[in-house]
Amino acid sequence: MLTTANLLGFLALALVIIIVPGPSVVFTIGRALVLGPGPAVLSVAGNVLGVGVQIVAVALGAGAVVASSPALFFAIKVLGAGFLIYLGVSAFRHRADPLEVELQGERPKTIQIMRQSFVVGITNAKTLVFFLAAFPQFVDPGSNPVVQMLLMGLIFSVIGFFSDSLWALAAGYARHWFAHSGRRLVVLRGAGAIALSLLGAYMLAGAFS
Question: Is the pTM of this model over 0.85?
Answer without folding.
Answer: no
